[in-house]
Write a structure and sequence with these properties.
InterPro entries: FAD-oxidoreductase/Apoptosis, FAD/NAD-bd_sf, FAD/NAD-binding_dom, FAD/NAD-linked_Rdtase_dimer_sf, Reductase_C
Structural class: alpha/beta
Number of helices: 7
CATH class of the largest domain: Alpha Beta
Domain FAD/NAD(P)-binding: 4-290
GO molecular function: oxidoreductase activity, acting on NAD(P)H
Largest sheet: 6 strands, mixed
Radius of gyration: 22 Å
Bound molecules: flavin-adenine dinucleotide
Strand content: 25-35%
Oligomer: single chain
CATH superfamily of the largest domain: FAD/NAD(P)-binding domain
Domain Reductase C-terminal: 312-377
Shape: globular
Helix content: 10-25%
Number of strands: 26
Distance between the termini: 56 Å
Protein name: NADPH-dependent 2,4-dienoyl-CoA reductase/sulfur reductase-like enzyme
C-alpha cells in the first residue's frame, strides 16, 4: 500500500511528480527535499530573458506549491537504504517511504577546481552571478558552443562585450544538424563573435582563471570565463545503494528503477528508441513527461502506460526564437517548408530514410501541438532542401 512518498529534488520533475500523484488520487503524505535555498523556479530563462534583463528574477519562480505537500528547502539527501526504504538526509534524519521519486537532476560540468572561479549557469544564483559579471566586464570566453554557450554568447554580445566561444566541435551541429547550425554560426559571426575550434579540448589558466588554453597553447584571455560544457547527473547521493552510475539513473519503459523507486528528469538515462543505447534527454519537456509517467508507475505499476518520449526543446539567440519537436538525427535531410532563414522566419522539417523525424519553427508562431504533428507529417512536395 502506497502511503508515504518522498521526492528528492526541488525542480520541475519533482513538482510535476507531486502534482501528478495528487491528481491521480494519492492522499498520503508527500515530502519533497531540495538542497536549494529557493522555492522551485524555472531554469530555461536563466540563460535567456533573465540573463538579458528582459525577465525579472521574480518571474522565474513557479506557482506556489500545493499546501498539502511538505516541501523542505536546504535539505540534502545523502544516501538511500533500499532494503529499509529510507532516504538518509544530511544531519542524520531518515525519511521512511513506500514510494520514492528520484528527481535530483543534474549540475553543470566544470573544468577547474572551485578556486578557478569559472562561472557556470545551472541554478538561479549562478545566473545572478553571471548577470552581474557581464554588466561590468569587457570580455568573456565561453567554453562550449551548445545551446547554453551560444545563448550566453548572444546575450553577452548584445551587452557589447568582446565574446569568444571555444569548442572541440563546430557550434550546435550535434543539437541542430549542419543546416540550422550553419545559419546560427553565421549569425554569431555576423554579430562579431570569435569562434575558436579546439579539437584537443581546453584547460583553464590562472587562479582564479583569467584565460583558456587550447591544445596549441594559445591563451584566450578574458575578464570572465564561463564554462557551458554540459552537465553531470546528480547520482552521487545514491552511491552504495547499487543504483545510478556516471551516465545517470537507468529507468525502464515506465520510469521505474527498483521496487518502490521511480525517477524522472535530467538524472534519468533510458535506452533510446533510435540507438538501443542508454542516453539522457535533459530538456524541460522531457522532465515533465517523465515525471507524470513515473508518478503513474508508482501508483499503478504494470497497469501504468509506458512513457513515450516526445522531445520538445527551444532556444533563443541572435534574434531567432527556435522551437524543435522530434530529434534531428545524424544523416537527416533538412527541408524548408515555408519562409527562409535569410528572411529570419521559417518552418523546417527533417527526414531520415524518407520518414519525418523532426520539425522546427524559427520566429514563427505555431502552437506546440501543431508543431508536434508536423514532426511526424510528410514533407510537402515543393520544399527547398
Ligand atoms: C540555464 C539553463 C537553460 C535551459 N534552457 C532550456 C530550454 O530552453 N529548453 C529546455 O527544454 N530545457 C532547458 N534547460 C534544461 C531544463 O532546465 C532541465 O531539463 C530541467 O531543469 C530538468 O529538471 P529536473 O527537475 O530533472 O532537474 P533540475 O532542474 O536539475 O533540478 C534538480 C533539483 O534537485 C536538487 N538536488 C540535487 N541533488 C539533491 C540531493 N541529493 N538532495 C536534495 N536535492 C537535490 C538540485 O539542487 C535541483 O534543485 C535549461 C537548463 C539550464 C540550466
Amino acid at each position: 500500500m502506497m502511503r508515504d512518498v518522498v521526492i528528492v529534488g526541488g525542480s520541475i520533475a519533482a513538482v510535476t511528480a507531486a502534482d501528478a500523484l495528487r491528481q491521480q488520487g494519492h492522499d498520503g503524505p508527500i515530502t519533497i527535499v531540495s538542497d536549494e535555498r529557493h522555492a522551485p523556479y524555472v531554469r530555461p530563462p536563466l540563460s535567456k530573458g533573465m540573463l538579458k534583463g528582459t525577465e525579472s528574477v521574480d518571474s522565474v519562480f513557479m506557482a506556489p506549491l500545493r499546501a498539502d505537500l511538505d516541501f523542505r528547502p536546504k535539505t540534502r539527501a545523502r544516501g538511500l537504504d533500499l532494503g529499509r526504504r529510507r532516504v538518509l538526509l544530511e544531519g542524520g534524519e531518515e525519511l521512511p517511504y513506500d514510494g520514492l521519486v528520484v528527481a535530483s537532476g543534474a549540475r553543470a560540468r566544470r573544468l577547474g577546481p572551485p578556486e578557478a572561479g569559472e562561472l557556470v549557469v545551472r541554478d538561479l544564483d549562478d545566473a545572478l552571478r553571471l548577470r552581474e559579471s557581464l554588466t561590468t566586464a569587457r570580455s568573456v570566453v565561453i567554453v562550449g558552443g551548445g545551446f547554453l554557450g551560444m545563448e550566453i554568447a548572444s546575450t553577452a554580445r548584445g551587452l557589447g562585450l568582446d565574446v569568444t566561444v571555444v569548442d572541440r566541435d563546430p557550434p550546435l551541429v550535434r543539437q541542430f544538424g549542419a543546416f540550422l547550425a550553419g545559419h546560427m554560426t553565421r549569425a554569431a559571426l555576423a554579430a562579431g563573435v570569435r569562434l575558436v575550434h579546439a579539437p584537443d579540448g581546453v584547460r583553464l589558466a590562472g587562479t582564479p582563471a583569467t584565460a583558456v588554453l587550447t591544445g596549441d597553447g594559445a591563451p584566450l584571455e578574458a575578464d570572465v570565463i564561463v564554462t557551458a560544457a554540459g552537465d553531470l547527473p546528480n547520482v552521487e547521493w545514491l552511491a552504495g545503494s547499487g543504483l545510478g552510475g556516471p551516465g545517470g539513473l537507468l529507468v525502464d519503459e515506465r520510469c521505474r528503477v527498483a521496487p518502490g523507486v521511480v525517477a524522472a528528469g535530467d538524472v534519468v538515462t533510458r535506452v533510446s528508441d533510435h540507438t538501443d543505447l542508454p542516453r539522457r534527454s535533459p530538456h524541460w519537456g522531457s522532465a515533465i513527461d517523465q515525471a507524470r509517467a513515473a508518478a503513474l508507475a508508482l501508483l499503478k505499476g504494470d497497469e501504468a502506460p509506458e512513457y513515450r518520449p516526445s522531445p520538445y526543446y527551444w532556444t533563443e539567440q541572435w534574434g531567432l526564437d527556435i522551437k524543435i519537436c522530434g530529434r534531428i538525427l545524424p544523416g537527416c535531410e533538412t527541408h524548408v517548408v515555408t519562409g527562409s532563414m535569410e528572411e529570419g522566419s521559417a518552418l523546417l522539417q527533417w527526414t531520415r530514410d524518407g520518414a519525418t523525424v523532426a520539425a522546427a519553427t524559427v520566429n514563427h508562431r505555431m502552437p506546440v501541438v501543431k508543431l508536434r504533428k508536423l514532426a511526424a507529417a510528410p514533407v510537402p512536395e515543393r520544399t527547398t532542401g
